Amino acid sequence: MRLSRKRYTKRVLGLLTILAVVTIALAFPALFIHDHMENLIIERLGIEARNVAISIAHLIEQDIAPYRKLVNTTGQGDPQFDEAYYLRTNALLREIKQEIDADFIYTEAVVSDSEIAYILDAEDMASEDFSAFGEREGVTENELIAHIRKMSLFTDVVDYPDWGKLITGFAPIVDAADGTVVGLVGVDFALEKVGDMLRKVSLVIFLSFVILIILISLVMYILILLRIESQKTDYLSGLHSKKFHEFRLNDAIEDALSTKRPLSLMMIDIDRFKAINDTYGHQVGDRALKSVADVLKLNTRVVDICSRYGGDEFVVILPETNLKDAVVAGQRIVDKVQQVSQDFDGLAAGELTVSIGIAQWSLDETPESLMEKADKALYQSKETGRNKLTVYREAKQSG
Q1: I need a labelling partner for 64 at 20 to 30 A (CA). Which of 16, 123, 219, 333 fits?
Q2: Which whole-number Å values give the CA distances from 238 to 117, 193, 273, 292, 318, in the listed order?
Q3: SS3 of 214, please?
Q4: How far apart, in whole angstroms, are the C-alpha atoms of residue 86 and residue 43?
């Protein structure tokens, strides 16, 4: 039987509902990870800024004399100002800046508790961001800590009025000869870099969560389908359950209504099943049920829906089947069960038989009325000798 539009719509809606629930459930962890990643990126940039500042400080400390002499001059007009060293070291800082893609690299001297003076600057001298030698600026708490405690550190995001939002690493330049702090190295990364890095990370997070959402949703959907599938099957006979039969009968009628093709229904009952149970025991009765179920499986089409309706009663939905073909199928089942009964271990030969009632669906008929017609035909088979089939007729029932 083909999948009806209604069932298909239900399955799609079910999958979309699961996707929505999983998406909502994972949205909060995704947002948490996103925020956590932003903090990690800021910390990572801060550590990198500090480490670069430490490396530059160590580089200057290896030949501290010309740098110290430069700090002690008043500027380019001072005869002691070593312009060659100044230009050469600035050029070296520019190379480092380009290599690590920093926004600013510079050195400074803390001249008071409130001011610093710039010494070296990696910016191009023609740039408006270039800080000339000796140019003053207010000192920050972090600069004072690095200077006074002779320690390297990095800041969180700091919003400077003139420079924007920066993450900065500071390292002291220490003269090993007397242990004095000659200056500080500063390395800045702009907050925009966090955004650039976060966008790349966010894309990875987004794609990962999309894949995770799809996988979890599919697993949940499959588990739900497996659960539903397990409820479709009667554990003893291996046929479909009564509930599944009722569900599929509605679909079969919808299909017949839309395609204008015939639909037949077959109800089957094991003859004298109570007597079999009472005489031979429930184990033999269960084996009889399984034997009849096996006959139904082997003698119906793939599209036919075979179900155990309850107790010793079975029902078969025969889509696209008229009464004539349904009778052929029903008689084949009656004959095959009788053949099985000849060799059934535990029962007398010929003791296992079935009675069948067959009805064909008519336009605008409900599932309940179709079942009732087939049941009446089955009752007629029982009343007129068993081990036979009867077709329901509107005016007259004949066997």
Answers
A1: 123
A2: 89, 64, 19, 11, 18
A3: helix
A4: 32
The answer to whether residues 156 and 46 touch, using CB atoms and an 8 Å cutoff, is yes
Task: Find out whether 105 and 93 touch, Cβ atoms under 8 Å.
Answer: yes
Per-residue pLDDT of the chain (399 residues; tens, 9 = 90+): 444 555 556 667 777 777 777 777 767 666 666 666 778 888 889 999 999 999 999 999 999 999 999 999 988 888 899 999 999 999 999 999 999 999 999 999 999 999 999 999 999 999 999 999 999 999 999 999 999 999 999 999 888 888 888 999 999 999 999 999 999 999 999 988 766 665 666 677 677 777 877 787 777 777 776 666 666 788 889 899 998 899 899 999 999 998 899 999 999 999 999 999 988 888 989 999 999 999 999 999 999 999 999 899 999 999 999 999 999 999 999 999 998 887 777 777 778 999 999 999 998 889 999 999 999 999 999 999 999 999 998 754 444
β-partners of residue 170 are 153, 186
Three-state SS string across 234-251, please? CCCCCCECHHHHHHHHHH
CB contact at 8 A, 19 and 213 = yes
Between CA 386 and CA 27 the distance in angstroms is 64
Residues contacting 168, CB < 8 A, separation 6+: 46, 49, 142, 154, 155, 158, 186, 187, 188, 189
CB burial of 166-204 (b: ≥16 within 10 Å; e: otherwise) equals bbbbbbbbbeeeeeebbbbbbbbbbbebbeebbeebbee
61, amino acid identity: E
* CB 306, CB 294: distance < 8 Å: no
The structure's pTM equals 0.50
* Structure token digits, residue 241: 């359950």
Distances (CA, A) of 226 to 144, 219, 316: 67, 10, 23
CA atoms lying within 13 Å on the CB side of residue 33: 13
